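--- STAGE predict ---
source: upstream dedup step, 1 unique chain passed
mode: sequence only
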Amino acid sequence: MRVTLVLGTSMLAGMILLAGCNQNQKTSANPAAQDLGPASQPDAETAQNTAPANGNSPAVPGQVSTGTQTFAQDIALENMFEVQVGQVAAMRSQSPDIKEYARQMVDTHTQILNRLKQLIAKASPDYKPPMQLDQFHQALLDDLQAANAEQFDPRFIAQQIDQHTQAMTLMRGYLKAGDDPNFKTFAQQELPIITISLQSINAIDRAHHGHVVAQANNVGRPAR
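--- STAGE serialize ---
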């Protein structure tokens, strides 16, 4: 079983690397958006009068809609959490497969977070992404840190399944209803990486399933 898990985490690293390479290739292939001349840009009054009632359209050039800001904030928080919880798990887990997975999550989500910050800086320089965890994600982190040695691995696995599922929901939701093409491209490129990570933690869950079931009552999932 241990050989299988080591091979599985090695395959995860290769799959994430391949997804990242594909993401870079797609980014380089996208042509730059054409600049509009001054005559093509609506004045502030026109932009305000023509903005949809749902508030998804930016009021002035150089800003993104409130819906896109919410998406960017949620994705930033998810990735900040993954980096921090991965650092904790890499130190505290007693399982080699979970330690390896946690180290990969730190690297993967640091890269996603950096790409998101670069996108935000270009699309909406005035918008600043969150610099610390919100109450919900901090509660998750605190709950994991409070686990004893026996509780730690099943609690980490449960949190990872929940949070990667949530991240996939956010990505798919923006792909369906988002209004900014650059952020849609970001979501489309990052979604396969999140999917691979979820598949990997589900495989680890199956390998540890007996232990997870035994500790199920000790898994804390704070309500939003």
